[in-house]
Amino acid sequence: MYLILDTNTWIFLANGYDTKKKSYLREEHFNLLDEFIQFTSQPDIYVLINDIIIDEWNRNEKSIRKIITEEENEISDLNKKLQNEIKNIYKKTGLKNQNKNTKEIKNKINNTINFIERSEKHIQKINEIIYTKTVRAEISDANLIECSKRGLKKIAPFHNSKNNIADCLILLSSIDFVKKKRQDNQYVELPAAYFISFNKNEFSSPSNEELIHEDLIDLFNSANISYNTNLGIAISSSKETIDYIEKETYLKYIGCQFVANEELHTYHIVELNNTLFVQRRTSSYLNPNQLFIIFNGEDAITDSEKRNRYYNNFLHLEAGNCQFCNSLHFVCTCGEEVSIYDTNDFNHSCDCGFKFRMLNEKAVEY
Length: 366
Known about the structure:
Elements: E1 2-5, H1 7-15, E2 17-18, E3 23-24, H2 28-40, E4 46-49, H3 51-93, H4 100-132, E5 134-136, H5 141-153, H6 165-185, E6 193-196, H7 200-203, H8 217-222, E7 225-228, H9 231-234, H10 239-244, E8 253-255, E9 269-271, E10 274-279, H11 303-311, E11 314-321, E12 328-331, E13 337-340, E14 347-349, E15 355-359, E16 362-365
Parallel strand pairs: 1-4, 1-6, 4-5, 6-7, 10-16
Antiparallel strand pairs: 2-3, 8-9, 10-11, 11-12, 12-13, 14-15, 15-16
């Protein structure tokens, strides 16, 4: 059996990023990876990868390292808060006792330490899978040509005008690999294979999201490939893990809106690897470096709390620049892609009514 995971499935395994909540899950991706390892350790089960997946993991490993660093800073902040709480108790009672607050802080510290340790092990596990437990399905020139043809004809996975070159190449190269295995080994039937993707908008049928898109049926049938939108179901995970995996699109790449539709080249890609911070219309600006005066009876404000107050004043929009024309693209709060070619224009908007303007290099909603 062959397992083919698209880039967003690998991303979810890597860091558990939940695009609906705009936050990282704390447990579910750890559990899913352990079950994935257990499933793929069985005889005659192979995971197919290529350079696209390896490059994507290398980028995401850096993001996980950044999360670990932030968690380590959080421990430092919590330790300071704990010491201040103990001092307050001592002033009031003359004893170094614990109260509800100190116990909660200690629990947070222990949970954070546990999360860091699990994240470090998580990185080691994925590196071991990718570099020692997988089979390479190399991308051929024929795959590149077929991918371009599908893009020009606007057939799945390019029917929705999004740039899905990476996942299309993963699929095409894997199909060729599985079919070649049949020829090499003279299989009477093709070996079973499963393509797993959270990208329902790109690969699912408009009439039934559990079925493959009509444009891809012949391709899938030619290699006896089944389609699934939930990795937990595909590997027979526990019900708890399956319930945690939300079936949603994990958008990472889009096509540049300024490139002529009749041409499709791999360098006309916008990788959403940055964040556009737009100050909310209903918020007031808060400087995280400002001095906070603590009055009697109030708890000290940690650096982490200051950062949270600051970042909550902003909308966090996925953004990136076209690799060809350098135009800025971002995903609006409504889910639509918006492009900005003239960076000298102060006012920008989306068809949904969302508007913001650039003021002294800061984006402000209006």
